[in-house]
Amino acid sequence: MLLKSDRVKIINFTSEMAENLFLNSQDNDMKRFLADEVYENAAQAESVINKIIDFYNSAEGPFVYAVIDENNENIGHIEACKIRDGYEVGYHIAEKYTGKGYATEAVKLFLLVIMDKLNINHIYGITLEENIASSKVLERCGFELIYNGIGSYQGKEHAIRKYIYKKAD
Questions:
Q1: Strand, helix or coil at 111?
Q2: How far apart are CA 57 and CA 74, in angstroms?
Q3: Pairing of the two strands 122-128 and 156-166
């Protein structure tokens, strides 16, 4: 996958990105909100990348891609993962790049293609209730809040917000 806007590119992961994926996984927000995507070292990150690459040609994914900024820095990732009632979009932008609109830009760009690839007309976004920044990204991208309460997040019960994005007809 290669998607490009003025400031971001969304591309397939390669094993050469392992060190960067590892370093991005060490962010405080990553540890707080996406603990299952925190890696002990670059070798573990490379193992995950190899699994990600294997899924690119699958029917159901997960489909995980690198987010690259205008300086060709790997600043995070974006993904579409199968959940019980459809697909969920997920993303992480490294701490030093947050607050600059990269997540919003990447999500908007990603939705244009991933929904067609998956042949779906809606996709969910699920955040911990305390993750206000992620909720704002989803809202700026046109997601509608459909649930606010206790729900499953990474296999545990938490206060969550569940959003839906519906493709325009």
A1: helix
A2: 22
A3: antiparallel
CA distances from 36 to 4, 27, 48, 111, 128 (A): 28, 13, 11, 24, 14
Angle ∠(87,91,97) on CA atoms, nearest 5: 165
How many percent of the chain have pLDDT more than 90? 64
Q: How far is CA 138 from CA 7, 48, 80, 160, in A?
A: 19, 26, 14, 13
Residue 88 token pair: 């969920």
pTM over 0.70: yes
- The CATH number that domain 2-118 falls under is 3.40.630.30
The 10 Å Cβ neighbour count of residue 33 is 19
Could you report the per-residue pLDDT of 103-152, keeping only the tens digit for each?
999 999 999 899 999 999 999 999 999 999 999 999 999 999 999 999 98
pLDDT in tens, 70-96: 999 999 999 999 999 899 999 999 989
Determine the residue type at 25: S
